[in-house]
Design a protein that fits this description.
About 30% of the residues lie in helices and about 30% in strands. It contains 10 helices and 32 strands. A hairpin with an 8-residue loop joins β11 and β12. The N terminus is likely disordered.
């Protein structure tokens, strides 16, 4: 029989390394956590890669948006000479040429003191009255006869500047002991003119040096130069729509023409096309890296198996080679204008081909990128569409023309009014009153109505007129939303005003018709297809004033490849609901689940660790007691 611990014949173990034993056990039990962390790192890598992809997809959408929103509207100007003016054009400018003659530049009124002072801080003599009359005819006075109002040049300049009336004063040193006061209008033109009166101020005589004047130019005036244009500024932006003229010098000869030509800015457009191609290629290169097998690492990118990433790549390649839906033009794809896909799926620009297309067929190039609509009939105009609209050509039939709301008097010719009267005109449920007086004739009544309504804050869009002696009140807009009512304070009849109005209402009609045989809803001149079918959502205006109702030809709608690509990239990258966002959310959920699992395991292991420490500590105590017993027995 052997003795456990070896009393007399063996030895008892020393105390246990409690901390070390517990750490080893806990480490072994943490293996599930390490397994979960592998998945956590994997999912985190996918999530980060998808966020990077989303950024790049958004870049493609943004580049195409910039291209379509302003690339085809950009305008540039060129001048036959540059010594008299410069010019810039906004996207709203119309293409064309304009002959400009700059006869006169706008100038600011300026005054300067005649005699220089030894310095700018010495007080002026106590003599005379100094006045400034500003552009609003306000008079500002300095009484130098009053010793308490004695000023130096610096003092006076400072006080003038605090007036804040559109003029500025300064003290200029022309030389040694030669300081002079200068007063200048802040803005050019006669409307900003002012006057200085220094009579009696012997110590501060001021003289006008530059007279305020307006600029004067001629635009397309021919050889006669009769129709001139004046402005208070040398920057003129309200003469040629969308064009700003910056006048630089006067034409001393009086007849030198500067031709300003406004045309499409194809350089800006080409830059925007290049930006789109760069964004497209950056996204495609990123996807290629994700889907290419790396032999050294023996794996592909982290997105290689992701449906959302493959969807982005498939869509990019699809739209890059797609043809314009509904188009009959030979300009129907990116490749036609020199945007060609290479073997790696990247877009390459054939500059010669693109330049030729932008120069010779810009409007057709626009149709490749943008949605477009056109109407065959002169009374029909394309307005827009919705996502439900299918590209194609559709027949338009107008069954009711839109009309303006109009009220007319009872038929009696307006005579000179026999008494004062108040007319109450109600437009879209808001009342406006017009006072007419005894003796007013038809012209007086019309002028009072139009003047009063135009003076209202809302600038009421109705117009009074007289035809055949009868008074008409007509809404400027079309449709049933623009109802007009008119009521007179005096009933019609013999011995009254002669206007013949007591209480009348005028209603407009909305346009009505069908497109592609589908039901459409009219609002004023606007007709929108509401019935189910390919044309649903198509919007157009029908001004059937001369042609009446009936067949109005067809309206065609094409979907540009660029706009379709932009819309698809927008949908894929849309926050919260886009495919990429939904995929990222799924990984967020997985990561959150893994985090919860790790927390649960850690909580259990923490409790188990405390139990193990207690158990091994007790074991150590037992071993200690055995050691003591062994020692006692040996003795």
């Amino acid at each position: 029989m052997s003795n456990v611990g070896g009393v007399g014949g063996g030895s008892i173990m020393g105390q246990l390394d409690v901390q070390g034993l517990v750490e080893q056990i806990i480490y072994a039990k943490q293996q599930p956590i390490r397994d979960l962390e592998v998945y956590e790192n994997f999912f985190e890598a996918k999530r980060t890669a998808l966020q990077d992809l989303n950024t790049k997809v958004t870049g493609v959408e943004s580049a195409m948006y910039n291209l379509n929103s302003s690339g085809f509207d950009s305008k540039t100007t060129s001048l036959s000479r540059s010594d008299y003016l410069s010019a810039t054009a906004s996207s709203t400018a119309s293409e064309g040429s304009y002959d400009i003659i700059v006869e006169r530049l706008a100038k600011s009124r300026s005054y300067s003191s005649d005699d220089g002072k030894a310095n700018a801080t010495d007080k002026l003599l106590n003599e005379g009255i100094f006045t400034i009359t500003d552009k609003d005819a306000n008079v500002h006075t300095w009484d130098f006869t009053d010793p308490s109002d004695n000023k130096s040049l610096n003092d006076l300049a400072s006080e003038i500047n605090t007036l804040d009336v559109g003029i500025s004063a300064s003290v200029v040193q022309y030389g040694t002991a030669d300081y002079r006061l200068q007063i200048v209008a802040d803005d050019t033109g006669t409307e900003n003119d002012f006057a200085v009166d220094s009579d009696g101020t012997v110590d501060l005589e001021v003289t006008s040096k530059v007279t305020a004047q307006d600029s004067r130019i001629y635009v397309n005036s021919g050889d006669d130069n009769i129709n001139f244009i004046t402005r208070s500024s040398n920057t003129i932006s309200d003469v040629i729509s969308g064009v700003t003229l910056n006048l630089a010098a006067e034409d001393d000869d009086g007849g030198t023409i500067t031709t300003v030509t406004v045309e499409r800015d194809t350089t800006d457009l080409k830059d925007k096309i290049q930006s789109f191609v760069d964004a497209f290629n950056e996204t495609m290169s990123y996807l290629n890296e994700q889907f290419t097998y790396n032999e050294e690492q023996e794996r592909a990118g982290v997105l290689s198996g992701e449906t959302s990433a493959r969807k982005v790549k498939e869509d990019l390649l699809s739209f890059a080679t797609k043809k314009v839906t509904g188009s009959t033009s030979s300009y129907d794809s990116f490749s036609v204008i020199g945007l060609e896909i290479n073997r790696e799926g990247l877009l390459e620009i054939n500059d010669e081909k693109l330049d030729e297309a932008l120069t010779d067929n810009l409007s057709e190039v626009e149709g490749i990128f943008k949605d477009q609509g056109s109407a065959a009939h002169s009374e029909i105009s394309y307005v827009g569409y919705t996502d439900e609209t299918v590209a194609g050509s559709y027949a338009v039939v107008i069954t009711q023309a839109a009309t303006q709301a109009v009220t007319a008097d009872s038929g009696t010719d307006i005579q000179d009014l026999l008494q004062d009267e108040t007319l109450t005109i109600t437009y879209r449920n808001t009342e406006y009153t017009v006072e007419v007086s005894t003796g007013d004739d038809s012209d007086d009544v019309v002028n009072k109505i139009n003047t009063q309504l135009n003076a209202e804050n809302d600038d009421v869009p109705v117009t009074a007129s007289v035809t055949g002696g009868r008074l008409f009140i007509t809404a400027d807009e079309y449709g049933s939303d623009h109802e007009i009512k008119i009521r007179s304070s005096v009933a019609a009849g013999a011995g009254t005003t002669g206007i013949g109005i007591f209480d009348l209402t005028g209603d407009g009609l909305n346009v009505d018709g069908t497109v592609n045989g589908q039901e459409a809803e009219g609002t004023g001149l606007l007709l929108e297809v509401t019935g189910d079918g390919d044309a649903k959502g198509l919007k157009l205006t029908a001004s059937t004033i001369s042609g009446g109702t009936g067949d109005k030809g067809s309206i065609s709608f094409t979907r540009g490849v660029g706009e379709e690509l932009r819309a698809q990239m927008y949908e894929l990258s849309f926050p919260y609901t886009g495919l990429i966002a939904v995929t990222i959310d799924s990984f967020d959920s997985k990561l959150e689940n893994i985090s919860d699992q790790i927390k649960t395991i850690n909580r259990k292991l923490a409790a188990e660790q405390e139990i193990l420490i207690i158990q091994f500590t007790k074991a150590n105590e037992a071993l200690g007691n055995l050691e003591y017993l062994k020692s006692t027995l040996s003795q």
